[in-house]
Amino acid sequence: MNGINIHRSARDGIYFYQPTGPILIANSSITYNRGHGIAIDNTTDGRVFINMTVVQGNYGDGIWYKQRQSGINLYKSVGNLRDKRQSSSYYEEEQPRIDMCLEHGISNNLFFPHLIKLYLRAGTPIDPILPPICWMVSF
Q1: Counting beta carbons within 10 angstroms of the beta carbon of residue 28, is it exposed (0 to 12), middle (13 to 18) or buried (19 or more)?
Q2: What was the pLDDT predicted at 55?
Q3: Beta bridge partners of 91
Q4: Deepest of 30, 35, 115, 139, by most Cβ within 10 A of its Cβ?
Q5: Residues 54-72, buried b or exposed e (16+ Cβ, 10 A)?
Q6: Per the confidence metrics, is the pTM higher than 0.70?
Q7: The most confident of 9-13, 110-114, 129-133, by mean pLDDT
């Protein structure tokens, strides 16, 4: 979407439900709406590109984003030749890129979005004097 203006909508300015591909919004203005400026609900793709766009003065969050329900991230995959003939593609569960309690950085040659795992067993003591157990650096 390029060059759109959405002002004073009774609900969300733009609402995307279950998008299966990337979303691109450029050179636009989404302001003073009663809900969120941009709402992305239950996406299986995860790619959202917002460029040179004003999102301000909305009653809800400026941009509200929710990955696919149940916390499962999916990616498009093509199986072996037999599977390819029967179905052009199917979705598999995406594996985390890192566990930020074990590794503390993502390689610079990987692109967003990143699925990051964080696991602390219930009752894990956190001492504020010691350095944090789980942390990461992202560029």
Answers
A1: buried
A2: 94
A3: 76
A4: 30
A5: ebeebebebbbeebbeeee
A6: no
A7: 9-13
